[in-house]
């Protein structure tokens, strides 16, 4: 009688990077957290200079989230 259970290949894949879902979840949370502050600073800058800043509040919040999120995953 032959035992074939010892020759079975491993079916699990090694993970080399965290899942993208986790990255996008952190990105979304950070974006939503920075958005109110970016809107406030955008409004104050527009009121003080009496002109609209070149970069809008959503672009600033997006940039902040793009800076902060990779720092969390590299730590």
Characterization of this structure:
By secondary structure, the protein is mainly α. The chain contains 2 helices and no strands. The longest helix is centred in the middle third of the chain and has 30 residues.
Helices and strands in order:
Layout: H1 20-49, H2 57-74
Helix pairs in contact: 1-2
Task: Please give a handful of descriptors for the protein shown.
single chain, 75 residues, mainly alpha, 64% helix
Helix/strand/pairing category: mainly alpha
Query: Mean of residue pLDDT?
Result: 86
Q: Residue share in helices?
A: 55-70%
Instruction: Point out poorly predicted stretches.
Output: none
Classify the beta-strand content into a percent band: under 5%
- How many DSSP H or I helices? 2
Query: Biggest sheet, in brief?
Result: none
In short:
It is built from two helices and no strands. The chain has 75 residues and is mainly alpha-helical.
